[in-house]
Amino acid sequence: MSFPFHSLGTPEHRADLPGEVDLIVIGGGVLGICTALYANRRGLKVLVLEKGRVAGEQSSRNWGWIRVQGRDMAEIPIALEAQELWTALEAECGGRLGLRQRGTAYLARDAAGLEGFEGWLEEARPLGVSSRMLDRAATEDLMAVRNGPWAGALYTPTDCQAEPWVAVPELARLAVSEGVMIRESCAVRGLDIAAGQVAGVLSEEGVVKAAQVLVAGGAWSSLLLRRHGINLPQLMVRSSVYASGVVDPGKGVGLPDVGAADDRLALRPRLDGGYSCAPAAYSELFVGPDSLRHLKFYLPLLKEGSFEVKLRPAAPKGFPDGWGTPRRWDLNGESPFERMRILDPAPHVGRLGRLKRDLATLWPEFGVAGQATQWAGMIDVLPDVVPVADRVSALPGLMVATGMCGHGFGIGPGFGRVLADMAAGDAPGHDLSRFRLSRFSDGSRLVPGPNI
């Protein structure tokens, strides 16, 4: 299996720029592509503009989980819908998304961890989740480990997985086959505004008119919005991933066939016989101007202490929150989005080395499997660890969907369907009040989502 993370390559989608459309989507990740697909099915003429490549950033670099487990209560109904949509999309794409229902397990090393899982389950059970608690013996069976370090687990058997670097490009091809226009290597420099409302976008290749624009630019969203006076306290953290080679089970109890995570590691079996693995609950924040500007919003999360985030010196050159990255630029000249087509951070090699040792301790087969590759991605996060999916009241015609906080891949079709119906003028079908943009400015108390 190839891992196309680090190269622009040749653009696959180069649709001619139309003069006018109904909806412009900024960003060719899973959220943008799904919104475009469903908006097109609602009868809208849709154009997706992507500065680099479809799924070039976090939409291809994530763990590949499609989970309901552990989500914020307000997200669960959308996540459940997303799983149904993934199943339908897999059929429409001829089985090419790599979708598998393998389940998700969160592993607890002690009674306190189990208590946290049980608290989430008590609240989530009325919403229709399939999750249940496992004791020590059942957890060891599930994880194919004897005398393991876990006291038990929270297990959701209906959770799914897919291959992100395969699935999102396939969804883009499906969207194009149905009439969506996608143009890669075409950065949006800014919004075209007339009479106080959105009139389209100014791209590096010209102006396109539209009555509605969706900003779904992942880690770049806040930078673009700030250029137009819209404050979104979004930051980004680095997460590193290690992809093993094919792991052959030995003569012991086998290998886990489930997506699983504890406080040290996470893993997912891939279709090629290898595993994608990561240091669970560990991320890194590169300090930049936005880190200081938005500190007040993140203090409740920092005080809670449930997220392991390591501070790193200044963000690399060209990053959205780099010290030298301009916050204002001439819309008729080169923008920061053209200067960095793909945000491709280097992985934390030391931390991945520790991860490999942890894996081999539990499953010796990992010690001889070899490495396929390793990579990192920048996860767009918000202070309460839930996304924004809303219209921007200060600028009619503008919508924003970002801050998926590391789980946008799985829930992408669900939010895409919601946003498409919003763009078509229909009710979204879910309570979106938790995801409103105004929660950062109306004095509301920010309540962090669950960290499980």
Tags for this model:
452 residues; alpha/beta; FAD/NAD(P)-binding domain; eight-stranded mixed β-sheet; 20 strands
Note the topology:
Blueprint: E1 20-26, H1 30-41, E2 46-49, H2 58-61, E3 65-66, H3 76-92, E4 104-108, H4 111-124, E5 132-134, H5 136-143, E6 152-156, E7 160-161, H6 164-177, E8 181-183, E9 188-194, E10 197-203, E11 206-215, H7 221-226, E12 235-244, E13 259-261, E14 266-269, E15 275-278, E16 282-286, H8 289-293, H9 295-304, E17 308-312, H10 336-339, H11 349-362, H12 366-369, E18 371-381, E19 388-391, E20 398-402, H13 408-423
Parallel strand pairs: 1-2, 1-11, 2-8, 4-13, 11-20, 16-17
Antiparallel strand pairs: 3-7, 4-6, 5-6, 9-10, 10-11, 12-15, 12-18, 13-14, 14-15, 19-20
Describe this structure in words.
The protein has 452 residues and is an alpha/beta fold. The chain has a single domain, classed as FAD/NAD(P)-binding domain, CATH 3.50.50.60. The chain contains 13 helices and 20 strands. The longest helix is centred in the first third of the chain and has 17 residues. The chain is globular, with a radius of gyration of 21 Å.
